[in-house]
Automatic annotation (TrEMBL):
Residue ranges, annotated region (Disordered): 675-805, 824-855
Signal peptide: none
A Pfam family reported for this protein in Swiss-Prot or TrEMBL: PilM_2
InterPro entries: ATPase_NBD, FtsA/MreB, PilM
Stored CDD domains: ASKHA_NBD_PilM
Amino acid composition bias (Polar residues), ranges on this chain: 789-802
Gene3D superfamilies: 3.30.1490.300, 3.30.420.40
Compositional bias segments (type: Low complexity): 675-708
Residue ranges with Gly residues bias: 717-747, 760-777, 846-855
Protein name in UniProt: Type IV pilus assembly protein PilM
Length: 855
C-alpha cells in the first residue's frame, strides 16, 4: 500500500517548537499529527544556548514523529529578512525575469551572491501591445543567516524542502483560513483588509492583507518578554518566577497588581500598534481595516483582547479554532487546544507546502535544490554511462579494422610535415613575445614615473561616502532596514521630518529662530568635523583605544570585541568574523565628530547612533557587484576597505550653546596615537599619493582668518545636504578633519583653523601638512558652562510684556571611529631612479608625487 505524502510545517520560536502535519484527504487539507515542545529556557535569555536548545528540541521532535517521505517547511524570523513590493515598468512578459534581477540589485543592500532571494507576481495590470504592468513581491535573506537556521535541521538529520519568513507564513494563514472568499470591498468601494497581530516572545509581527495585492507587514519591537521584565521590576521577582506569574495571571489572587505592573508596557504596545495602523491608513486610502485577529501566547493574558479593542476602537478577535482545517485527532487534542494560538505560522507553512497558499516564494538556497536533483538522477546517469562505454568499445573495434589497412609511410610523411609547420609557428610566436615584453617594460617605466595619479581622488570619494551614509529619514531615505524604520516611521518622527522639509522649502532666514518642537524625533545628525590620522601600527592604536574605553567609559565589564560599541552589529548583520581580531598593519584611523538631538522613549540616543550611523556605515562599505557603467578604479578605494567601525562615545549637553562643544571641540584620538607604537601616527609622511586634501582660505592650516566665521542660522539639526567641501571650518578649534555636513548646525566663534586630514591635494610630493591646532572653545570649563546656561535662560518678552518660555532641548555629542586601508596600487609601480635607463618626461605639477609622502 502506498504511503500518503504529507507536509510538516515547523516553526522554531524563542519559547517553543511548534509543528503540524497536513495532507490532502478527500480533497481537503487535513491535520494528521502535531507537536508542541517547549524549551527549558527562553532562547534569548542571557544564560541560554540557542543552538543547543534548538538541536535538543528537533531531536525530541524526531524521536516522537516519523517524517520519512514527508516534505518539511521551515519558518525563519522576519527580522532577519527583507521584503519589498515593487511595481515594474511596462515590459514584454518574457523579459520580466531580467527586469526583476535588475530591481533586486537596486532593492537589496547586499551583493546578490551573499543573499538568497526569490520573487512572486502579486498583481498584473493591463496588457498593451505586448507590454504588461506587473507588481512583484521581492523577498531576500543573508545566505549566512539561512545557513545558520538550516544547520540546526541538518545536524538533526532533517531534510528541509521549503524556507519561508514567518510574517509571510502568517499572511498565508490569514488568506487561506480567514479569507477563503478572496478579496472583497465594502459599501464605499474600499478594499476590506484583515489585521493579524502575532505577539511573540521578544517582538511582534503585524500583517495587513486584503487577500489580493495588499500585503503589508511591520515588526513591533515589543513582546512577551517585555511583560515579564515589567513584572520582574515592579513585583521584585526573578525572571523565571515572573514568567510563571504571567502565564498563570488569570488564576492568581494578585491579578489587580499584576495588571497594574503590566500597564506601562501595554500602553507602549498599543501606541506602536496605533502608529502602524495610522501609517497604513494614510498610505492606503483605498483600503479599510475590517477587524484584527490576535495570535501568539501573549494573547492569553487576561484582558488583553478587551484592552486592545477599547484602545484601538477596533473589532479584536481571538480565534478558538481553524475554520478550514479538518482532522479531529489533532483538533480535539488537549495540548493542541491549549496552545492553538501558537500554531498559525506552522499552519501557514504547511498550507504552502501543499500548494494551497497565497504566497509561494521559497528561500531554500538553489545549490541545495540542484544537489538534490543530481542525487535523484544519479542511478540513471550511471546506467547511461555504462551504455555509452559499451557503445564506444564497439565503435573502436569497428574503426580499428580500416586503420590497420592504411599504409604506414603515408601517415609518417604527414606527421613530419606537421612537425615542420609547428616549428615555424613557434619561432614566430617567440619573436612576438619578445616584442610584447619590450613594450611592457617601457610601459612599466612610464607608469613608475606618473604613479599616484589614479589615487588623487581617493579622499574626495571618502568624504562623499561619509556624506552619503549620514541618516536621512523617509521612504526615499537610507533608514529602511527592518530595525531602522522605527526610528522615524511613527507619528512624531513623521511630523519632525515634515517640519524640517517645510522649513527648507520656505527658505532659511538668518534671523529666524529654529523650531524646537519635535526636534528630538528628527532622525538626523550634524557632522562637526572629520579627523584622519595615518598609523603603521593599527593594533597598537586599538589597544590604546580599548584601554581608554575600559578606564574612562565604564565598559570594563565587557570583553573584546563587545567593549567596542557597534561591533555586535557588524558580527550579526554583515560579517561574523569582522571583529575576530583587532586591525593590523598600517592604515588610516578616521574619526567622525558630530551632534544630534534625537532621543525618544522607544529608541534612546545611543541606540539611534548605532542603528542610523554605525549600521549605515557598515552596510554602505560592503563590497558588492560592480556596476557595468562604473570602472573598478572608481569603487575600489572605499568598498571592502573599511573595518572595525564603532561608537567611541557620546555625551549629553543639557544646555547646548550653538558652536560651543563640551567634548568634541578637538580630536579625541590625537592623544591615543603617539603611544601606539614607535611609528604610530603620521600626518602624511606615511601617506600615498591619495592623501587627504586641505582647503585654502579660512579652513587652511597655512592661512589665518582676520575675523571669526559667522553662521547663517543659530542652531538646529540636519538630515541631508552635501558636505561643505575640503578646507571649511569644522567647529571651534577642530584639528584636521573634513568639511561640516549640516543644514542648521553652526561652528563657534573661535577662529581655529584646520586641514582636511593630513596632507594637501596640491603639490608634487614631499611631506604634507598636519591638522591645524585647536582654537578656543574646545573643552568648556565649568565657568563657561554656567555663563552659557545663563545666556540660554535669559528671559525674553512678547509685545504685551509677557515672558516667553523657551524649551531648550538637550544636544548629544558623539564620536565614531573606523579604519580605512586605502589601496594604493601605484606603489608597486615605483621604480628607483637608478633602474630607469631611458629618459622619461617628468609628471605635471598639481598632483601628489609618487610613493608614500614623496619618499
Amino acid at each position: 500500500m502506498a504511503v500518503t505524502s504529507g507536509v510538516w510545517g515547523i516553526d522554531v520560536g524563542q519559547c517553543a517548537l511548534k509543528a503540524i502535519r497536513l495532507e490532502i484527504i478527500d480533497g481537503k487539507p487535513t491535520a494528521t499529527a502535531f507537536d508542541y515542545i517547549e524549551h527549558p529556557k527562553i532562547l534569548s535569555q542571557p544564560d541560554a544556548n540557542p543552538d543547543e536548545l534548538t538541536k535538543e528540541a528537533l531531536e525530541k521532535f524526531l524521536s516522537r514523529n516519523p517524517i520519512k517521505g514527508d516534505k518539511v517547511a521551515m519558518g525563519v524570523p522576519g527580522q532577519s529578512g527583507l521584503a519589498r513590493f515593487v511595481k515594474l515598468p511596462p515590459v514584454e512578459e518574457k523579459k520580466i525575469d531580467d527586469i526583476v534581477k535588475f530591481e533586486a540589485k537596486q532593492q537589496i543592500p547586499f551583493p546578490l551572491e551573499e543573499v538568497v532571494w526569490d520573487f512572486q507576481r502579486i498583481g498584473q495590470g493591463q496588457i498593451s501591445d505586448g507590454f504588461v504592468e506587473t507588481e512583484i513581491g521581492l523577498f531576500a535573506m543573508k545566505r549566512d543567516m539561512i545557513s545558520r537556521f538550516l544547520s540546526h535541521f541538518q545536524s538533526a538529520g532533517i531534510e528541509v524542502h521549503l524556507i519561508q519568513m514567518s510574517p509571510l507564513a502568517l499572511c498565508n494563514y490569514v488568506t487561506y483560513d480567514l479569507m477563503p472568499d478572496g478579496a472583497s470591498k465594502d459599501e464605499r468601494g474600499k478594499k476590506k483588509c484583515v489585521v493579524a497581530l502575532d505577539l511573540g516572545t521578544d517582538n511582534s509581527n503585524l500583517i495587513i492583507t486584503d487577500a489580493d495585492k495588499i500585503i503589508w507587514q511591520r515588526p513591533i519591537p515589543l513582546g512577551g518578554n517585555h511583560f515579564t521584565r515589567a513584572l520582574t521590576k515592579e513585583m521584585k521577582l526573578t525572571f523565571a518566577k515572573a514568567e510563571h506569574v504571567k502565564r498563570n495571571a488569570a488564576k492568581s489572587p494578585d491579578l489587580p497588581n499584576i495588571l497594574k505592573a503590566l500597564r506601562p508596557v501595554l500602553t507602549d504596545f498599543v501606541g506602536e500598534v496605533q502608529r502602524s495602523l495610522g501609517y497604513f491608513t494614510n498610505t492606503h486610502r483605498d483600503a479599510t481595516v475590517s477587524y484584527m485577529v490576535g495570535i501568539g501566547s501573549g494573547f492569553k493574558l487576561p484582558g488583553m483582547q478587551k484592552y486592545l479593542a477599547e484602545k484601538l476602537n477596533l473589532d479584536v478577535r481571538k480565534p478558538s479554532k481553524f475554520d478550514r482545517m479538518t482532522g479531529d485527532s489533532v483538533l480535539n487534542a488537549p495540548a493542541f487546544i491549549e496552545n492553538m494560538l501558537s500554531f498559525p505560522v506552522a499552519y501557514g507553512l504547511a498550507t504552502q507546502g501543499l500548494g494551497q497558499s497565497r504566497l509561494t516564494t521559497n528561500l531554500l538556497p538553489p545549490e541545495i535544490h540542484k544537489e538534490r536533483l543530481i542525487r535523484a538522477k544519479k542511478p540513471w546517469a550511471v546506467a547511461a554511462a555504462a551504455m555509452f562505454m559499451m557503445g564506444t568499445g564497439v565503435l573502436a573495434i569497428g574503426y580499428s579494422m580500416p586503420y590497420n589497412q592504411a599504409q604506414a609511410t603515408i601517415i609518417q610523411s604527414a606527421i613530419d610535415e606537421g612537425k615542420n609547420a609547428k616549428t615555424r609557428a613557434d619561432k614566430i610566436n617567440k619573436e612576438i613575445a619578445s616584442k610584447i615584453s619590450d613594450v611592457e617594460a617601457t610601459t612599466k617605466k612610464v607608469q613608475s614615473v606618473i604613479s599616484g595619479q589614479d589615487e588623487r581622488k581617493n579622499w574626495i570619494r571618502m568624504y562623499q561616502f561619509i556624506d552619503n551614509i549620514l541618516p536621512v529619514p523617509g521612504e526615499n531615505g537610507n533608514l529602511n532596514d527592518q530595525n531602522q524604520v522605527v526610528l522615524w516611521q511613527n507619528q512624531l518622527g513623521l511630523e519632525a521630518s515634515k517640519r524640517y522639509v517645510d522649513r527648507l522649502r520656505n527658505g532659511l532666514q538668518p534671523t529666524a529662530s529654529i523650531d524646537e518642537a519635535y526636534r528630538e524625533y528628527l532622525a538626523a545628525v550634524d557632522v562637526e568635523a572629520i579627523n584622519t590620522r595615518f598609523t603603521t601600527n593599527l593594533k597598537g592604536a586599538y589597544d590604546n583605544l580599548e584601554n581608554y574605553l575600559n578606564i574612562y567609559t565604564g565598559r570594563s565589564s565587557k570583553e573584546f570585541p563587545y567593549n567596542f560599541d557597534g561591533a555586535d552589529l557588524a558580527i550579526k548583520y554583515f560579517n561574523k568574523d569582522a571583529w575576530k581580531e583587532k586591525p593590523t598593519g598600517e592604515g588610516w584611523l578616521v574619526e567622525i565628530r558630530g551632534t544630534t538631538f534625537y532621543n525618544t522613549p522607544l529608541v534612546p540616543t545611543r541606540e539611534f547612533l548605532r542603528r542610523a550611523v554605525i549600521q549605515n556605515l557598515l552596510r554602505a562599505s560592503q563590497k558588492r557587484e560592480s556596476d557595468p557603467n562604473t570602472t573598478t578604479r572608481e569603487i575600489e578605494p572605499i568598498l571592502g576597505n573599511i573595518s572595525h567601525v564603532f561608537l567611541y562615545n557620546y555625551w549629553t549637553d543639557k544646555m547646548p550653546d550653538p558652536g560651543q562643544y563640551r567634548r568634541i571641540g578637538s580630536s579625541l584620538i590625537e592623544e591615543i596615537l603617539p603611544a601606539a607604537g614607535s611609528e604610530s601616527a603620521s600626518d602624511s609622511s606615511q601617506s600615498s599619493g591619495g592623501s587627504p586634501p586641505s582647503g585654502e582660505g579660512v579652513g587652511s592650516a597655512s592661512a589665518s582668518s582676520a575675523e571669526p566665521w559667522v553662521p547663517l542660522v543659530s542652531a538646529g539639526g540636519s538630515m541631508g545636504g552635501a558636505s561643505s567641501g575640503p578646507g571649511e571650518l569644522a567647529g571651534p578649534g577642530s584639528p584636521g578633519g573634513g568639511g561640516r555636513k549640516s543644514g542648521f548646525g553652526s561652528p563657534g566663534p573661535g577662529p581655529g583653523s584646520m586641514t582636511m586630514g593630513p596632507g594637501s591635494l596640491a603639490g608634487s610630493g614631499g611631506k604634507m601638512g598636519s591638522g591645524g591646532g585647536g582654537g578656543s572653545g574646545t573643552y568648556a570649563s565649568k565657568d563657561a558652562d554656567t555663563e552659557s546656561a545663563a545666556v540660554q535662560q535669559q528671559p525674553q518678552f512678547d509685545n504685551n510684556g509677557n515672558p516667553i518660555r523657551k524649551v531648550i532641548k538637550p544636544r548629544y555629542e558623539f564620536v565614531v571611529v573606523f579604519v580605512w586601508k586605502e589601496p594604493t596600487p601605484s606603489d608597486k609601480l615605483i621604480t628607483p631612479a637608478s633602474d630607469i635607463t631611458e629618459s622619461v618626461p617628468a609628471a605635471p605639477a598639481g598632483g601628489p608625487g609618487p610613493g608614500r609622502g614623496g619618499k
